[in-house]
Every structure is written in C-alpha cells, then in structure tokens.
Amino acid sequence: MTVSNLAVVIITFNRNALLEICLKSVKSAFLSQAYPLYVVVQDLNSEDQNVLQKFSSIITQVYSVESGSQSKEKLINDNRVLAWDIALIQQGHEYVLCLEDDVEVAEDIMNFSEKVITQNSDNPSFFGINYGSYEINQRPNTYSKLRYGIHGPASLISQRSFLRMKTKRLNYLQGLIAWDSWVEPIAKIGYMATSNTARYIDHGVNGTHTSEFHDRAYFEKLLLSYNVTKLNKSLEVMNLEAVHTWRDDCVNYKSSDNLKYRLKLYRTRLIQFTRLLFKS
C-alpha cells in the first residue's frame, strides 16, 4: 500500500492543550513514515494557531470552519463528515484515520492500520477500523472483526465506506434522523476490524466535546487496555477473534449473517422514514 492511500485527519475545537497532546502522539506515530495530515479547526483562535505552528512540519493542510449557531452535537457530526470528505473525496485518499483532538494515540497505530488494511481491503464487508477496547487479557497485536458502529474518538474508514453512508442524503434530512441511527446500521452490514486492546487514550472526560461514552468507567477501562498495548513490540498483526464488552450489541462478525443485517438496515430505514411521514 502506498503512503498516499492513507491519511490522518484531526478535528479540533478550541482545546489547544488537548490538541497539542494529540499532535505530539501523532508525530511519534509518524517517526518511521510520514503520512498526509489534515486538521479541521472549528473557530480557529490564536492559541490554536500557536499549537498548529509548533507541529507545522507534519501538518499537510489546516481547514478552518465557523460554528455559527449550530448545536454541539451537530457540529461534531458535521465536522467529522467534513474531515472524511476532505481526505477521501477532495484529496483522493483511499483510507482516512479520523481523530478527535482529545485522544492520544499509540505509537504503533499507523503500522497496525496498514497491516489491518492489507489483510482486509479485498473483503467487501470490511468497513473500517476501530481502535477502542476495554479488554486487558488479549494479545495487543491482534484484532477482531465486529459488527459495530464507528468509534467517534478514533476510527478509520475507506472511501468506499464513506460513499455507502450517503451523508448528503442525511444532511438533506436536517437532523430529523440522528447521525448514529443513520450510520450504524450501514456499518453493521459488514464489520469494523477492532483492535483487541485500545490504541488510544481519551482525555475528553471534562472536555467541550465529551465522548458519547461519557461515564468515567469508559475512560478508566480504555486506559487500562491502552496500557497493555504500550507493551506491544511485535510488528506482526493478525486477526484473532475475541469477545468485546464494549456494548451488548457488539458481536463478532459471521459472513453467514450478512443478509440478516442487510434486512435489518432496510427495516430500520422503513421505520425511520415512516416516522418522518407521520411527523410531517
């Protein structure tokens, strides 16, 4: 896989201290090989500019957006879609690793990503990579194939997956259908290759854009799992199925269930659009 096929995007909003931690960890992950790095900054200020200047040697381009009067939740989702669009459509990369500014990533995250992509790119059911995990008794150089949605703080998707989401159609609905409710059933048709131990720390426990998993247990479990990953010295990456306790509906992928989950998507859309009709 060539370098230009994979890029990284960071989404940030006036949290310069957290952004600096994030960029520092990304720089460490780039030590063996550089990748295109884009930063989407909401309401750019002088403190943000200082941090971005400090890491200008690894940043390809900065995109500034204004918040206006939109809600926090809509801004988070819109900025994520913009980040995907910048890397996958405007810049033409095949894969993008999207990070929120409150995460600190493992040094091996790029190597891990490349190996997982190489092993799964030919499978049409491969939707992307999730880097979060609660597990501590797993081998850190392994991943599972899970039917689950996209982890907001740190995840990777392909251009093919992004196009499947039909985000323009969702945007046309102007928030009438929740972002997660729209995207998750699509992702569950296939699988997210998911690191069996966490490859990021989430520092956003008290942040402006707090993770959807906002209870303290989430941050603590993630950190314990990440500490296992830090011990990983192996360059070998392999698929080794493990049970993940992320959420009750987080299940291991079986290709024999593909039709069932496609029918679930159609059923979900029918219910969603039926409700919209009754509201209008």
* SSE arrangement, N to C: EHEHEHEEHEEEHHHEEHEEH
CATH superfamily: Spore Coat Polysaccharide Biosynthesis Protein SpsA, Chain A
Radius of gyration: 18 Å
- CATH topology grouping: Spore Coat Polysaccharide Biosynthesis Protein SpsA, Chain A
Fraction of helical residues: 40-55%
Largest pleated sheet: 10 strands, mixed
Choose one word for the global shape: globular
Uncertain regions spanning at least 5 consecutive residues: 206-213
- Quote the average pLDDT: 89
**Gap between N and C termini, in Å?**
48 Å
Count of β-strands: 12
**Number of helical elements:** 9
Concise synopsis of the structure shown:
The protein is of the alpha/beta class and 280 residues long. It is built from 9 helices and 12 strands.
Structure characterization notes:
Helix 1 (16-29) packs parallel to helix 2. With 280 residues, this protein is of the alpha/beta class. It has helices spanning 16-29, 46-54, 72-90, 109-120, 159-165, 167-172, 179-187, 216-229, 258-279, and strands at 6-12, 37-42, 61-65, 95-100, 103-105, 126-130, 142-147, 154-158, 191-195, 200-202, 238-239, 251-252. Strands 1, 2, 3, 4, 6, 7, 8, 9, 11 and 12 form a ten-stranded mixed beta sheet that branches. It has a two-stranded antiparallel sheet with strand order 5-10. The longest helix is centred in the C-terminal third of the chain and has 22 residues, at 258-279. It is globular, with a radius of gyration of 18 Å. It has one domain (3-279): Spore Coat Polysaccharide Biosynthesis Protein SpsA, Chain A. Strand 1 (6-12), helix 1 (16-29) and strand 2 form a beta-alpha-beta unit.
